[in-house]
Each structure stands twice: as structure tokens, then as C-alpha cells.
Amino acid sequence: MSNPFPSLDVIPSFHAVMTQGSLSAAARQLGLAHPTVRRHIEGLEQELGTQLFTRSANGLTPTQMAYSLMPAAASVLEEAASLRRIASGNKDAVAGTVRITCSRVLAGFVLPDVLGQITRDAPDLRFEIMGTDTTENLLRRAADIGVRFVQPTQKALIAKRLPDVELGLFAAPSLPLSGREVEDLPFIADDRENRILPAMANAGMPVPRNVILRSDDPLVQIAHLRAGLGVGICQVKLAARLGLVRVSPKTRHMMPCWLIVHEDQARLRRIAYVFDALKTHLPHLI
Fold first, then answer.
1. Which residue pairs from 4-7 have beta carbons closer than 8 angstroms and sit at least 24 positions apart in sequence?
2. Strands 125-131 and 145-148
3. 136 membership: H or E segment, kind and range
């Protein structure tokens, strides 16, 4: 198969300029010289016969074509990273690198305990964690294993249904709660995403009237919840480990959870081992 570009190095340079916003920032991220990244961008534009950026005194502005190319560029980089992971260990050995994608809350509060146990049992494993609240595409090899709260639909994925995750309302022990209705307690909600309050209303839960803090970052929400700023939503098992107090115990929501692996990746011994370990340990923590 012929190579459409003089060098595939142009793809990480293009992706870095798009994500970092400038040639100099992209060069720093990639550890390359500024002229090298500029040469890569110019070479890619010449090879594709199209302009990817407009130049001005304020720097580079991506064209619509550049935005259109980003998913393909990201896919190429993800496949390349998957190639390195596959080659990082013998396919029949419990050794090498495994990349896991999950929510930021799971990445920050749940996986450390699980991976600590896994690495004690299998010390030759290495991990890459993609903590994100967006659904990463395992078909593009963005990760080897995923933990999702939405049911996967792609046929090439193996999905194991885990026990539902219970959510509830919680507060720090220092927050005064007595004699106050749930709706009037200071509440921690999301911001621009605006999903928490409508979801509570749809579930028939009491909707707070006194939102004291808004943030779309769930780790920020939990940090301020633990600091006693207000009431917030948290996973029940996580809240118990954090020493939080449940508010309105009848207020609850069950969230489905799936553990997912691409069927090709499941044939690698190290990935199958981690998948089985997650299947065993996660239900006790989420």
C-alpha cells in the first residue's frame, strides 16, 4: 500500500497544531523545532492540495477543511498508539501496556484501588488511563478496555453488564441539615451542561432551589461536596468511602454500567486478564 504522504510525521504535527492552537505550542508538545512543525503543515497542505490554516498576526486559524480532517487524524494516532500497545508485550503474557477509558470520577476515585490490586498480582503490567466523561470509540482503538454508563451498540465489542451504580444525595458531616427541606439546602450542580437538575426533575426527585455552586467538572463537584459547601450527587459506595452523609435516603437513581473490550483485543492475554480483574473488583467499589 502506497504512503499518501512523504512522512506520517505530518499527522501528529497537524493534530498538535489543532489541539494546541499554534505552531510553537505544538512544537513544545511534540518536542520538535518550530520550523519542523511549520514544514510538516506546509507539506501536508501541499500534498492535499488545500489550505488548512489561515495565517495572520494573531497566529493560525483552522479552516473548515482542517476541522473536517481532525477525526481522521485522531483515528490514525489512536491506531498507532494501539499498535505500540499491542507490541509492548507477548500476546500470551500478562505483561505490557493496557489502556483504560472511564469517567473522571472512576479514574480518580475507583481505579487507583483496583489497579493497585492488579499490579500486586501482575507486576509486569503497565497502564494508560483516559479519564473522560465522553464516550470514547473502542472500535478506533482509542482504548483497550472501557467502563461506560451507556449500553454499547457496536457488534465488534464484548460488553459485560456490571451491577447498576446507585446514586444519591450526599453532604459533608459539617454541613447543617436539620430542620431544612432538601429543596432549600445549598446544592452543587453542573453548569453549562445543565443535566443534573433536569434529570432530578424527570426522576421525580426534589429539585434544589438554592444552587450555591455550578461546575461541569465532576471532580470539582465532589471536592466542594467534601468541603461542606453544599449537597451534591455522588455514587453511594464512593460516598461511604469518603465519609459523606446521605441526604433524603429515599432519593436514589440507578445507573447502568458496562465493561467493554474490543473482541480482537480480548484475545491478548494481558487485556483479558485486566478485563476479568475489573469485572471482579469494580462491583465492590461502584
1. 4/47, 5/43, 5/44, 5/47, 6/43, 6/47, 7/40, 7/43
2. unpaired
3. none
Region 89-118 average pLDDT: 90
**Partners of 234 in the beta sheet?**
168
Residues 69, 154: Cα–Cα separation, whole Å: 23
**Farthest-apart Cα atoms in the chain, separation:** 73
pTM score: 0.70
**Distance (Å, rounded) from C-alpha 137 to C-alpha 147?**
12
Residues 223-242, mean pLDDT to the nearest whole number: 96
Is the separation of the CB atoms in 189 and 257 below 8 Å?
A: no
* Chain Cα centroid distance, residue 122: 24
pLDDT per position as a tens digit, 122-132: 999 999 998 88
- Domains within the chain, CATH numbers bracketed: 10-85 (1.10.10.10), 94-158+260-284 (3.40.190.10), 165-256 (3.40.190.10)
Kindly provide the residue ranges of all beta strands, DSSP E only, lying in the chain, ordered along the sequence.
53-56, 59-62, 96-102, 125-131, 145-148, 157-171, 186-189, 210-214, 232-235, 245-262
Q: How confident is the model at residue 239 (pLDDT cuts 50, 70, 90)?
A: very high
273 vs 127: CA distance, rounded Å: 13
Tell me which DSSP letter residue 208 carries.
P
Give whole-number Cα distances, 57 to 27, 41, 42, 45, 272, in Å: 19, 18, 18, 20, 52
157-171 and 245-262: which strand pairing? antiparallel
Which grid coordinates are listed for 53? 490554516
Cα(36)–Cα(185) distance, rounded to whole angstroms? 56
